[in-house]
């Protein structure tokens, strides 16, 4: 059977509650953001040419056979082939993405997910979300050392998730839809560096950091109940609480705090940084009729891009 062209894609994501503490075993919640996506297309190539991976946004092209051991794209492809006990096919795999890079929106996990699904599909295999997630988790380790696993989970399942490291991923039931504005500071959020900084803080002051992690985990657990019960009014203050705890952990920044303040000033129910922090995105929970004003305020406060996303109620 000769392989046909295959296309696959994966969404961006935001962490709603629990970033950083999730690395230390506390609960966290994340949701996919479908408006921004990574895509992979795989086409047959002449016999003997092997697999070429083209990252069109990065103007990069690599031949799998010649790629270094630690190249994340090559690692994703090799892990997929090993998992499927398949030999390298003759093909061209082209990746592109509309997910902002280094902004806490899961760009790396989404690109890997699209790649793994695309390559598996090209070889005639439809992998389960859990299988894709596990392969992408291994790739995430190259990107940032000690990932909790939440990014690969929410992106591969493309569902809101309740996540505790080392436990099976739980799909989160959403009792009532809610709207988020995702506002980009324009400053990068280098996940690995910030995660390492938090680790140093934890090594210096374990008792203080553990208390903060516990408090963040408690907020995430309360938020889970609020989301499941459709109690959106309770969710805003929990986002505010989570943001304060992240400030205490040392991962916010003046730009993030400005966006959070601006969103609250414009009537958001709550706001916080999302992802590793220091830069990247703030997220604000808004009533639909307040979204326009909050968008304007966020722009005035320096947001370089605003994405409006709805976390949909289960039907
Ligand atoms: O990729 P980001 O920036 O969304 O950060 C991931 C969230 C962290 O909790 C900071 C790290 C992790 O592995 O969970």
Detailed description of the structure:
With 315 residues, the protein is of the alpha+beta class. It folds into two domains: 6-171, Ribosomal Protein S5, domain 2, CATH 3.30.230.10; 178-311, GHMP kinase, C-terminal domain (Alpha-Beta Plaits). It contains nine helices and eleven strands. It has helices at residues 72-83, 107-122, 129-144, 150-157, 191-204, 206-229, 232-249, 254-265, 291-300; strands spanning 6-17, 28-44, 51-55, 60-63, 91-97, 161-163, 170-171, 178-184, 270-274, 281-286, 305-311. Strands 1, 2, 3, 4, 5, 6 and 7 form a seven-stranded mixed sheet that branches. A hairpin with a 6-residue loop joins strand 9 and strand 10 (281-286). It is globular, with a radius of gyration of 20 Å. The structure holds (3R)-3-hydroxy-3-methyl-5-(phosphonooxy)pentanoic acid (PMV). (3R)-3-hydroxy-3-methyl-5-(phosphonooxy)pentanoic acid (PMV) binds at residues 15, 19-20, 22-23, 104, 106, 147-148, 150-151, 189, 191, 195, 275-276. Residues 15, 19-20, 22-23, 104, 106, 147-148, 150-151, 189, 191, 195, 275-276 line the site of (3R)-3-hydroxy-3-methyl-5-(phosphonooxy)pentanoic acid (PMV).
Feature tags:
315 residues; alpha+beta; Ribosomal Protein S5, domain 2; Alpha-Beta Plaits; 2 domains; seven-stranded mixed β-sheet; four-stranded antiparallel β-sheet; 11 strands; 41% helix; binds (3R)-3-hydroxy-3-methyl-5-(phosphonooxy)pentanoic acid
């Amino acid at each position: 059977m000769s392989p046909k062209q295959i296309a696959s894609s994966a969404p961006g994501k935001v962490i709603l509650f629990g970033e950083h503490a999730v690395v230390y075993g506390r609960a966290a919640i994340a949701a996919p953001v479908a408006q921004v996506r990574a895509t992979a297309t795989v086409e047959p190539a002449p016999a003997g040419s092997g697999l070429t991976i083209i990252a069109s946004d990065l103007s990069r092209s690599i031949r799998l056979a010649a790629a270094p051991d630690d190249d994340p794209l090559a690692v994703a492809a090799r892990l997929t082939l090993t998992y499927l006990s398949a030999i390298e096919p003759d093909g061209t795999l082209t990746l592109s993405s509309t997910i902002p890079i280094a902004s806490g929106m899961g760009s790396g996990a989404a690109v890997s997910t699209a790649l793994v699904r695309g390559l598996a599909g090209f070889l005639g295999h439809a992998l389960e979300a859990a299988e894709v997630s596990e392969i992408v988790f291994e790739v995430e380790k190259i990107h940032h050392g000690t990932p909790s696993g939440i990014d690969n989970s929410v992106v591969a399942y493309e569902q809101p998730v309740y996540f505790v490291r080392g436990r099976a991923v739980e799909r989160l039931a959403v009792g009532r839809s809610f709207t988020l504005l995702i506002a980009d500071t324009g400053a990068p959020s280098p996940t690995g560096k910030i995660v390492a900084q938090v680790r140093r803080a934890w090594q210096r002051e374990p008792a203080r950091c553990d208390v903060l992690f516990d408090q963040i985990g408690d907020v995430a657990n309360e938020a889970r109940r609020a989301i499941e019960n459709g109690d959106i009014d309770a969710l805003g203050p929990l986002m505010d609480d989570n943001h304060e705890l992240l400030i205490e952990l040392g991962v916010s920044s003046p730009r993030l705090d400005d966006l959070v303040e601006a969103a609250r000033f414009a009537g958001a129910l709550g706001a916080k940084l999302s992802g590793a922090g220091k830069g990247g995105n703030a997220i604000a929970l808004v009533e639909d009729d307040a979204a326009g004003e909050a968008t304007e305020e966020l722009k005035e406060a320096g947001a370089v891009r605003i994405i409006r996303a709805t976390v949909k109620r289960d039907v």
